[in-house]
Design brief:
Strand content: 15-25%
Helix content: 25-40%
Number of strands: 11
CATH class of the largest domain: Alpha Beta
CATH topology of the largest domain: tt1808, chain A
Radius of gyration: 24 Å
Pfam family, one: Uma2
Strand order of the largest sheet: 1-3-5-6-7-8
Order of helices and strands: HHEEHEEEHEEEEEEH
Protein name: Uma2 family endonuclease
Largest sheet: 6 strands, mixed
Number of domains: 2
Number of helices: 5
Keywords: Endonuclease, Hydrolase, Nuclease
Structural class: alpha+beta
Organism: Synechocystis salina LEGE 00031
GO molecular function: endonuclease activity
Shape: elongated
């Protein structure tokens, strides 16, 4: 029987009651990797307010899913073009029908059989998520797929072992056993701590150069503090 939009909406549960129902990450390797992915992208896009990152958060997309308690929460998902505000879960019918632009699953012993198969099928056929990656913090297995037409096609590795993400406009690859983002020129996207340490190093280098110049001027009988005085 045909339902109007208002009738369909009336059947949807109150989104305010839909909290995330995801289990904790399997190990500290997985939780550290997840925090790394979130922190680096948040730092890079710190001036943007038009995206949402879900970290181990349930995506609610249908009444049948709720009835069957068939919850699907990617370890990491990115949705662009939305307001950057906290949410207890991602409720598709409350977000203008928007599904993730990009999903990253962190494989573990309990999910290695479902993430590359059942979830991949869901993200391809129902979510229509443009890009899907998976990475194992244990084995370092790393795969990526881009939606081409109606099917996921593998994203090829570069000569440096990275895969290009059109959604992020960044490369993704493994460094020191962790999945990291890389700029188009190959430079590593830093963590906030790494960025702060680099800034501190640059400041120290500038101070060192200024000190050397001041010492040279003094050796020549010039008071650097009086330079520029009339």
């Amino acid at each position: 029987m045909y339902q109007t939009a208002s009738q369909f909406e009336a059947q949807m549960p109150n989104a305010k009651l839909l909290l995330s129902d995801e289990p904790e990450m399997e190990s500290s390797l997985h939780s550290d990797q997840l925090m790394l992915l979130v922190a680096c992208l948040d730092w890079l896009w710190r001036d943007r307010q038009d995206y949402f990152i879900g970290a181990n958060l349930t995506i609610y997309f249908s009444r049948q899913q709720l009835k069957n308690r068939d919850f699907r929460g990617p370890d990491f998902f990115l949705i662009k073009g939305v307001e950057k505000t906290p949410r207890p879960s991602w409720v598709v019918w409350e977000e203008d029908g928007q599904y993730p632009n990009l999903i990253i699953e962190l494989l573990s012993s309990s999910t290695a059989s479902t993430d590359p198969s059942l979830k991949k099928q869901l993200y391809q056929d129902h979510f229509r998520t443009p890009e899907y990656f998976w990475f194992s913090p244990d084995t370092l297995e790393f795969e990526g797929f881009r939606l081409v037409g109606h099917r996921y096609e593998p994203i090829p590795l570069t000569g440096t072992g990275q895969r290009w993400s059109e959604e992020l406009e960044l490369f993704m690859g493994i460094k020191n056993g962790q999945l990291r983002y890389f700029f188009p020129d190959g430079a590593l996207v830093p963590t906030p701590q790494e960025a702060a340490e680099t800034a501190q190093q640059l400041l120290q280098q500038e101070k060192s150069r200024a000190d050397r110049l001041a010492n040279y001027l003094i050796s020549q009988g010039i008071d650097p503090d009086r330079l520029g005085d009339d």
